[in-house]
Design goal:
Blueprint lengths: L4 H30 L4 H4 L10 H20 L13 H16 L3 H4 L6 E6 L2 E6 H26 L6 H5 L3
Antiparallel strand pairs: 1-2
Helix pairs in contact: 1-3, 1-4, 1-6, 3-4, 3-6
């Protein structure tokens, strides 16, 4: 049995983003129960040179929609990066999931050798589709979701491995 580019990307991103959204539900409940300031969470970083919770979620969603959009050859939605609340972050995740769900398997399958070019400032990085998926996008999405999870866990939100993994 083989796994397709679609199976290795879109459903995986949807799954991890839905789990992250559910973790944010627990975060909101924790904030309300303890009467805490939401910015203590959204702006929190684990170490001074690391990005804060909001930025972790922005990068995870940008990477997921960017990979799917590039492989499918469709325009990638651009978000304003102005989220300030847990509700804002959940909305961003929901928009990303909706975009990914709108992509059909046949738009992504067969893109293993597709040329992908990303730009960061004036630096270009060249990939093939499979390399971009396995060597860049998947590790990045999971890295940033894991870091968001760790920020929340560090700050007392009662979440565990089952929340991160969700139901498979």
């Amino acid at each position: 049995m083989t796994i397709s580019m679609y199976q290795a990307s879109a459903p995986r991103f949807i799954h991890v983003l839905k789990n992250l959204s559910a973790i944010l539900d627990k975060t909101q409940a924790h904030i309300e129960a303890k009467k805490l300031d939401v910015t203590a969470f959204t702006l929190f970083r684990l170490f001074p040179d690391m990005l804060n919770l909001t930025r972790q979620i922005q990068i995870a969603t940008d990477t997921a929609k960017g990979l799917v959009g590039r492989l499918a050859g469709v325009e990638i939605p651009v978000y304003e990066d102005n989220e300030q609340s847990i509700a804002d972050l959940k909305l961003r995740i929901a928009k990303t999931i909706a975009f990914i769900e709108g992509i059909k398997p046949e738009q992504i399958d067969g893109t293993e050798d597709k040329d992908i070019i990303t730009k960061r400032g004036d630096k270009e990085t060249h990939y093939k589709g499979l390399q971009f998926l396995l060597g860049h996008a998947l590790p990045n999405v999971y890295f940033h979701v894991t870091t968001a999870y760790n920020i929340l866990r560090h700050n007392g939100v009662e979440i565990g491995k089952r929340d991160y993994l969700g139901s498979i």
